[in-house]
Batch of 2 targets.
Target 1
Amino acid sequence: MPVHSSILFHKEDIRFRLNQAEKLKAALVKISRKEGFKIKGINYVFCSDAYLKKINKEYLNHNYFTDIITFDNSEEKGILEADIFISIERVKENALLFKTSFPSELKRVMIHGLLHLCGYGDKTIPQQKEMRKKEDSYLSL
């Protein structure tokens, strides 16, 4: 059994292989601890644009593409449980747009979802700046 069995990686309707999965899990666990949380269970689901757009429309009533949707299933304070859906196509496009590597952009998006679970928002400009600062600081883990 993996050391970090509380974080699981899945894929839906795409061919995708996540590199350095155990290192990513360790980094995510470390981030959650630094933020004062324990991970009970997080499912990262890597999928296509079409799959994520369907979820966006069905559950959030948004009819547009996005790179990530985080469903917080936590029931206890300080204990994280969630399903995080990430469009691999969108992450690839964003990596090109932001002139970064795909692995770096994927890690940023994964951290972004985790930070949402830790209480960080991104609706306002100040929230976006704080979120980006946290993402940048954790990217080195």
Target 2
Amino acid sequence: MALAAGLACKKPEEAPVAPPTPPPVTTTTTDAGPTQTKPADTTSTVSTVNIAEMQRAASLVLKDINFDFNLSDIREADKPKLQAIADFMRKYPTSKVLVEGHCDERGTVEYNLSLGERRATAAQRYLVGLGVSESRVNTISYGKEKPKVLGSNDESWFVNRRGEFKLQ
């Protein structure tokens, strides 16, 4: 009876607590055999690395193009720069670019804003012709309001008649 009384007074054992389950690991089978990918909790690090890589790549290819006086035609000398930008955008499908249209100091504010817009749009159309989605290339015109260099000579004017590309 004492044994029965001891059993009756004994507290029931607590159920063991299960350890937390790790994130699932995906296994893929290829011709070389099964491979495993990392758990999903590393995605924030991976996306940060990809953004940094994209920014480094952008700094190498987003180069200015220049325009002839009073024109918005893409010059032959600048077509390889635009091809490099299109290649970059294919490699980084989430990238978006802003094309800024600029002019030299000559002409009225209104005329240069219009010309800057035509220049930015010409660059956008050229990139679209190379296979870049139009929704990934935005445009803006600054006209003559943001010169890259100061000066009133042919060299300064040429530098200021440009399309600039910025990663968005």
